[in-house]
Structures are given as C-alpha cells and as structure tokens.
Design goal:
Two copies of one chain form a homodimer. Helix content of chain A is about 35%, strand content about 20%. By secondary structure, chain A is α/β, with parallel strands linked by helices. Chain A is globular and about 80 Å long. Strand 12 of chain A pairs antiparallel with strand 12 of chain B, so a sheet runs across the interface.
Chain lengths: ~450, ~450
C-alpha cells in the first residue's frame, strides 16, 4: 500500500489547510452564545464528508445540537465500520493563558513536535482527530482501496454529555449497525511509542449548591454567628477524601474491579519518567491515593476532583461579606465495574448527609457514563495493532486511559459492537487546556495508518 | 431645644431629596471602573458641606481617592468635635438579588420601617449616616445653636481599608486636632431600643492563592495523580477551624481579652430573640464557636470567614478540568487585645504550613485594623447618652459591635482622642447586602439627636 503514503505526501498541505479552516469555527457546546457557530460547524462537517466521497450525508436534528451522519456502502456483504467523532470543543477559557487566540490556528514547532503543531481549541480534541478519518476516506476512494463499508457519525455534544446522541443511537440501531466502531479521541504514549487505549474511565459529573442565610450578610455583624456557606462547602468537600486520599463516600469502592498483580506489573512496563512528568507540570511532588503509582492513579483507580468552585465576592479588592450561597462542580472518574448512576446516588446521599444544621444543600447531576474495556484479543484490536506496525514499524502498547468517552459503553449496549480507540494525539497536547495543539506529524501519520486498519480488519473478519 | 424638632419637620422633604441625589452616584471604591463617580461624589460632598455652612472646605488629594475636609470654628476656646464619615460604598453585586437598582433610590415601607425606608447601596453605610451630620450642622447654623467647633473629614476608601486616610491623618495632626470624634457608621438594636456601640472588632483581610500544575489539566488524564488546587484549598480552609468551631491557627487566641462573667451577664440583658433571628435569615440553626451565645460570637469573639472563593470552570454546563490555580478572600474579625499585624503573620505562617507537597501557596494581606473599646464613663459617651435620652425618651444600651472601623483605633493612636459611635441604622438594614436601606424615621431622628450631643458635650467638657 505504498500509494497510501505517497497520497498523504502529495496532499498534506491541503489536508492541513482544510483542518485549519474548521478550527476557526468556535463550536463551544457548553455555552449557548456559540449556538450559531455550532450550526455552522455541522454544515462544515457535512460538506467535508460529501467532498471526501460519502453518500447519504445528512444533518440530523436532535433535542440539542445536530448529529452529522454519512456513509459509503460498497457491498452489504462486506464488514461495516462506524466512525464516531465530535465537532464540539471545550470552552477556551482562561483566554489570557493562550499564547495565540484559540480560534485563530497557528502552526509552531515544539520540543515533542519538531515538524510543527497546530495550536487551536479542538486541534486534537476532536476536530483534528475525526478529520483524519474524513481524509483517510478521501484517500481510499481516490486510490480505489476502500475494502469495506463505512459509516460516519459526528456529534456536537460530546463535551457536555452526549445527551442527544444516546437518544439518536437508540432510535437508529438499524442505520448505525456495524461490525466495529472506530474512534480517534484519545492519545498515545509518544510518537516513537505508539499505544492504543483499551480501557476508559467512567464519569459522574455533579454540581452542588450550599445555601446558608437568605441573603448576603455583613461579615462583621454576622461573622462567627451563622454558618458561612463557603466555609461549610470547603469543609464538606475536604471530607470527601480521607487521610490516605481515598474517597470517603460509603460504598464508593464496593464494585471497583481490582487488577491482578500480573496486570499491574504489565502496566508498569509502559515507559514513564516521574521526573519528566513533574518537570512538565512544574510540580515538586505528585499527589494521590496511597498505595498506587501515578499511572495507576490516573487509569485504573477512581477519583474525585473539583472542576470549579465559586461563591461570595470574587472581584477586585476586598468585600467583607458572608455569601448566601456557594457552589462547586465536582466530577468523579470511575473504573470497571462502578455504575455511574449508582455512584451519583451514593455521592448525593453522602454529600447531603455531610451538611450541618444551618445550611441547605442541593446536588444536581450533570451527566455521566460507564467505564469501558476492550480485550486485546479482539479482531478489532488485532487489526489496529497490525495497522500501527505497518506505519510506525512497531506494535502499539495496550493502555488504560484515564479519560471518559461515556458513549463508548452506550454503543456496546445499544449496537452490540466493540470500539477501537485509535488515538494519535499526545497527553502533552494540552487538550481541555490553554494552548491545545496537535502535531502535524501525528495528523498525517493518522491519515496514513487508518486505511491499514480497514484492510486488516476486513481480512480478519471478512 | 424645641426648635430642633420643628426645623427637622419643616425641612424633612428636602433633607430626604438631598440624600437621594447623592445615593444616585455609584461611588464604589473597590472597583476602578467607578473612579470618575468617586470624583463626582467627592465634589458632591464638598458642595453639601459648603451649603450647610462649613468653611475652609477642600477636596484633599491623596494617593488614592480624595478626602473631603471642612470646618466651622466659632471660638478656639470652645471644645472641638471631629465628624468622620465615608462617601464610598460596597460593590452592589450580586445585582440580580436587588429588588430595585442599587443606585436608583426607592422609598418603600417595611415591617421595621413603617414610615418608609430608602433602598439604595450606601443608604445606611455610610452616605445616609454621614449626611445626618451635614444636615445637623445646617440646622444648628440656621438656629444659631452651634455650641462648639466642628470639623468634618469624609473619606472615600473606608470599604477598601482607608489606606490614604492613615497617611492623611498622620500628616495633618494639627488640622484635625479635636476633643472628641463622632462617627455614625454603626447600628442600634431597634427604634425603640436605642444603643451605642462601645466596642468594635479588629480586622485582618487576606487573599490566598494555591497553585498546582503550571496549566489547567484534563481531569481524565491527570485526575487522581496530581494535587488539585481547588481540592487542596478546600482542605486547607477546612483545617482553619477545629471540631468546636474554634480557629486552629496556633497562637490565634493567645491575646484575646476574655470578658468576666459579670460583663457577659450584662451583655446578655440586651433584648434578643433567637427565633426571630433565625426566621429573619431563613436558617434552621445558628452556627459558631462552642460555649458562646450568638451575641457573644458576633461581638466579643474573634472569627474567620471566607468572603469569596473561586477557581476552575464556573461557567454554564460542565468542564472536566483540573485548574492550575484556586483563590480565596479570607477575613478575620479580631477582638481586644489581638494585634491585626501579628494575626496576619500567624495566619500566613499557618496557611503556608498547611500546604502539602505538590502545590505552592501565596498569601497577600489586603488590609486590617485593631479592635477598639470606649469606656461608658467617658464624657463623650455621657453626652451621647443624654442626647439619646432627650430624643428617644430613654438612655441608649451600650453595645459591643461585631463590625470593624479600623480607623477608629488609628484616630486614638494619632490624634489621642476617643470616638463616639452614634449609629442610627438597624442591623436588618442589609448593609453590604442587596437591598440595603435606611429608615426615614432613623435618618430624621439622627439629625434631631446629633445637636443635643454637641450641647451636652460642650456643657460637660467646656
């Protein structure tokens, strides 16, 4: 398949400029202010699929933002692969920490990306990664090398819980039927250490509100005499972990699947340098659950993090006030076999129980999803492994990911198919952070590798 | 002094409309956006003093906002009273909790103010209360009843620490020399239970910053493996109180002046209904240091309250981020004989010590002031007591206030004179809160009472 590499080389400048153009659209799903940009982005995805050679391309309206669907069926007898991706992005704030505007893509070399990286919100998560699949389709059609049927489903609510998607999947099982699902929305260890994510953590995301007095109070007149909602909230959050940094919610660990010593030893083989890790984050020490390594803490262990907190006076200068309300956004990463609905309930019950007299507490579940694991003996994994070997010259390392793609377990439940997570970004690409970027080399390598997956998968199951 | 009451009755409509006009100026000292309004407000104060009959009125420039000074010297041999007040106000946020715009004064009756109250930011704190003195001067000049010399010093930085004022006082000891200082910036128990604040709490106000990783991180990729600055901050703040709600900063209570059983018994005589207190705040329980009553907790005991906290994603929807930084504004109310500089140091040392490896902590002192007490046998208090008796028909109850007016102790140190805190507002007037208001009855009663203070004070010390 030499033509694959040569096609990428011939068209790489256009592949890059096409990606830059969709990165300019601020498709932030969390903020209604960007709803028009979301519509524009769905339009852009539709056109990109048509241009690549998809058929039956449609913008499917939902309760929320539309899902873009397209397919290329060459022979119903052949295997069918469903490609999933999302065109929405995380909010770009804090804006002042970006070196260049988040929606004005810039190409700059970095230490890990000497050939240059594209800096923009969504460059890696997930516009750059789903667009690799669009270009891979174009490549196979132009080269007459598409070996199987393809379906594309690109949604616009991944960063806010994929609510409309679940309904869409349940209502379109037939249309979406497939033999394997392919997603590029994860990372790999390094450009010379390809890896495939075989497990994902689940998620439970909640918002909490603590209400004390019915109005803001003067801290001189009332200070010390009434429960201060902010002080109480900090106490309640602090109580969610014990002295060993284990989560203290009763029942939280009951269903956690513990890995065997062998599995942990296997995981420990993945290259990891704690010194580099700390240096990259500019921290003097790591921090987490006693008895587990850093790689275990962020992959096979559940966690609880406050993602946002606010209350009282946060403007310039000083205001001596006791706020009436304090708020926090809290997310828990879950592992097999924790059930996110059950965990959300356990959290809610425990958090309400933590509230002392003098305050009222409200817990609002935002969204969640189940953890997921792909066995490495699955033909989908085998095909992916051979594809990487063909383009990277070495097989990928199977890796448990710390992130969550809740819909992966939804797919398994509704469509009865496994998902292969072929991610080409790096953990250091700052997704969800200021200065998110995606390596040019990674982008092109992805476009080059994906066609091999189709080839080997069709050979294995066809 | 019958003419006093009749003058107030004759001119009350004008007294009210004049106050409304200065309440329309958004003189928020904490926010630079309002600097022009601050200048306009200083102008308005200058004109009000001139109109009332002050001489040598000047707008004294400072490093910060100007101080308005004016005087009426009738005979150097007579006693001199220095009236202090402030023309700046607290920030009005949260705006959405105001029933009417904070800088568009409205007059509405309330349960405690059947004759109507003026709703506006600064209505009570402190525009309404310092303006009573301006009108009392006008009254005495028009009636030829001014018995002593008067000096006015109205500043614009009380709500942000009175930094420029301290310098001004130190540089103008001669100009500001006086026999007693009069301030109306406190409250009284009830319209039928007049009281005078004989003690104030000190204050130490700090801002803390906790820094973890050098950038915001994806909570899936890093969650559980690095110290989350928000989780750490909540833990550190929670650790500032022990299980008895005592402040756990080493040495914090060392210099606290404990009241005798007799003094506490005397305090306990002030009318107080816990049921009404809780109902007014819509709370099911009070909360505070074990072993003390509500009135003791907010007057004779030191406290620590978080006035604001922020970090991470606080916008709409959900963002799975681990913030690089988390912040809080924290204030401590102090009692005799705690030294605010020493307490600020103790806090800083302790807070830094609470920080675990993996984060860096910065503590920035904002401002502070010492606690203060006026003995009730002081001629200034005696004169005030007789003045209240003349207009309220009963002597005032001496009361320890929970608030802080740091400059009161500065005055004592620099000008060697005591301060009398003749406040006419009510604790329920919501100062520093949405819907701040000041009773019309209280405003007029203040204007009527103040002249009696000058009369009796001159008789006692003249």
């Amino acid at each position: 398949m030499e033509h694959t590499k040569s096609y990428v080389d011939t068209h790489k400048d256009r592949f890059i400029s096409e990606l830059l153009s969709i990165l300019k659209i601020p498709s932030v799903s969390a903020d209604p202010a960007f709803s028009q940009d979301m519509e524009n982005m769905a339009e852009a995805v539709k056109n990109a699929l048509l241009q690549a050679g998809c058929e039956q391309v449609e913008i499917c309206e939902t309760q929320g933002y539309p899902i873009v669907y397209g397919e290329k069926i060459i022979d119903p007898a052949l295997p069918t692969v469903l490609v999933y991706g999302h065109y929405d992005v995380q909010p770009p704030d804090p804006l002042d920490l970006w070196d260049s505007p988040p929606f004005e893509p810039q190409i700059k070399p970095t230490g890990l990306h000497p050939e240059g990286a594209i800096f923009a919100r969504g460059a890696s998560d997930d516009k750059g990664q789903f667009y690799m699949h669009v270009k891979a389709l174009e490549l196979m059609i132009q080269n007459n090398s598409l070996p199987c049927n393809l379906k594309f489903m690109i949604e616009g609510e991944e960063e806010v819980g994929s609510e409309s998607l679940s309904a869409f999947v349940k209502e379109n099982r037939e249309k979406l039927s497939n033999d394997i699902i392919l997603i590029s929305d994860t990372g790999m260890i390094a450009n010379d250490v390809p890896s495939i994510t075989t497990g994902l953590r689940g998620l439970s995301y909640v918002e909490v509100e603590v209400t004390g007095p019915n109005r803001d109070l003067h801290s001189g007149l009332y200070g010390g005499a009434v429960a201060n909602p902010i002080n109480i909230l900090t106490k309640m959050i602090a109580n969610l972990h014990d002295e060993n940094n284990r989560i203290s919610i009763p029942g939280f660990y009951d269903k956690v699947a513990e890995l065997s010593t062998e599995e942990r030893a296997e995981m420990a083989k993945a290259p990891f340098d704690l010194g580099e890790y700390k240096a990259a984050l500019d921290i003097d020490a790591v921090y987490g659950e006693d008895g587990y390594t850093t790689n275990e803490r962020n992959a096979i262990r559940p966690t609880l993090d406050v993602n946002g907190i606010w209350g009282g006076y946060i403007g310039e200068g000083a205001k001596t006030v006791i706020a009436s309300k304090a708020y926090a956004k809290i997310s828990m990463r879950l592992v097999p076999d924790q059930d996110w609905n059950e965990i959300t309930e356990l959290f809610t019950r425990h958090f309400e129980a933590l509230a002392p007299d003098g305050v009222r507490v409200k817990v609002t579940p935002h969204h969640g999803g189940q953890a997921y694991v792909t066995p490495i003996n699955h033909p989908g994994y085998q095909a992916a492994s051979k594809a990487y070997e063909a383009t990277f010259g070495k097989p990928p390392v199977p890796q448990r990911g710390g992130g969550s793609i809740p819909i992966v377990s939804l797919f398994e439940a509704e469509l009865q198919s496994k998902t292969i997570l072929m991610g080409f970004g790096l953990d250091s690409d700052a997704i969800h952070s200021p200065n998110e970027h995606f390596g040019i080399w990674n982008y092109l390598k992805g476009i080059e590798t994906i066609p091999y997956f189709y080839k080997y998968f069709t050979e294995l199951v066809g």
